[in-house]
Amino acid sequence: MNADRPSTSPGSGRGADDIVGARVLVGTQMLDISRLSTHPLPMISQGLITVAGQGPKDSNGAGKSSFIAGLSLLHADDQWKLASGAAGAADLLFTAELAAQETRYSNADHGYIIGVFAAPGAATIAQLQESSLTVWLRINRKAPYLDLRWCDGLYVTYGTSEAQRAERVDKMWHSLPFSNGRADFHASRLSAVLFGGNARCVSFLSTSVRSSPTPNLLAQPLNDLSAARIFDAIANLTGLDRELEQEQALRSKEYGHRRDVLDAERDLETWQRDIAIVEAGIVQRRGARDQLGASRAAWQHRCARHLVDGLERADQIRSAIQGLDDRAEQLSGQLGEVDAQIKALSDDEEFARRLAETKARRDEIGRRDQVSPGARIVTIVAIMFRPSSAIETPTRAKKMM
User: Fold this and answer.
1) Any alpha helices (H) in 75-124, and if so which ranges?
2) If one looks up domain 24-213 in CATH, what number appears?
């Protein structure tokens, strides 16, 4: 059954996951894939399938390996390295040089692998039509190497010849809705969107279309594989490798966090040492400011003490000066008296007059001495208490002047 316009799939969109579900492959069609025919091919869901073909001379070059590789890609086999973009899928496209047809045909820029999935128990056409889901894989020569679209029901290209089927396929592809909103899902999301990330295919091809040279469980006897290689193969088959990669990523992230924590702790210790030095400097500066304040206060007190002492000393000095002024005035009076005495002593006439008086008194006293001895004693005492300057000779008095 063919349809010109597909119905919109309820599973399309960014949140699509496991759209195939329990369905199994019941038919396939490949266009511009190796040298394979574009005829739709029915498939069985169980049993052994033998693939045979006729090449240019014998079975070689018939496309048997390409057909098996296309089925493994349609079932999202991890051997295609889907997480890395499945660049090896481009090797499935028709290449004129490999087919020895370079003089008649050119290389295909893109090709299609179409798979029809239906419920396992579907036996009639109506049951197939009701439960079928058509998945389209577009393989491109350049990145992105895989584009995914799908629709409900049977939707394959048709025609009476290879050319008619090939001519319709691009138009039918563009009529399909985008699988991811305004764009398509690519290789990295193929397994999750179609099968929910569950392994649906295990394959091994030893030809040029093999996507990975790593031996798996199908490549050689188990006794030729080491325990580590067997574990890698089982992990790849069961999807455990993705969990291991996630765990490794989480461990790397945890290690990065641990390293950041250690760096932060080291930076904190450095900062604490630096801030301790800064705080010690602050404490020292605060102590220095306290000492400076105390010194300023002590200096002010000292200056005040000196001022008070100076004022007291000034009062004492003023009192002493006043005393000295009084003493000087007193001495000035005494000096005037002494000057008067000196002036009197330096006057010759006055000196002669006093000398005459003194001689007269001496004579008088001499006469008195003759009268009584007691009077002589009084005269002698009077002479002893007379100023010495009064009895100096006129010549000495002149010298003193």
Assistant:
1) none
2) 3.40.50
In this structure, are residues 89 and 146 in contact, taking their beta carbons and an 8 Å threshold? yes
CA distance 296 to 281: 22
Name the pLDDT band for 284 (thresholds 50, 70, 90): very high
Q: Does the global pTM surpass 0.70?
A: no
Q: What mean pLDDT, rounded, does the chain reach?
A: 81
Tokens representing residue 121 in the block: 């128990």
Cis peptide before 144 (omega within 30 of 0): yes
Quote the CA–CA distance of 342 and 192 in Å, as a whole number: 146
CB 379 within 8 A of CB 369: yes
DSSP letter at 7 equals B
Torsion-angle region of 245 (φ positive above 0: left; ψ -120 to 50: alpha; else: beta): alpha
Q: What angle do CA 355, 357, 361 make, to 5 degrees?
A: 115
Residues of the chain with CATH 3.40.50: 24-213
Residue type, 2: N
pLDDT band at 78 (very low <50, low <70, confident <90, very high): confident
CA dist 333 to 205, 326, 327, 343, Å?
150, 11, 10, 15
Q: What per-residue confidence (pLDDT) applies to 13?
A: 47
Nearest to 156 by CA among 141, 179, 181, 137: 137
CA distances to 309, 310, 314, 316, 376 from 323, rounded to whole Å, are 21, 19, 14, 10, 47
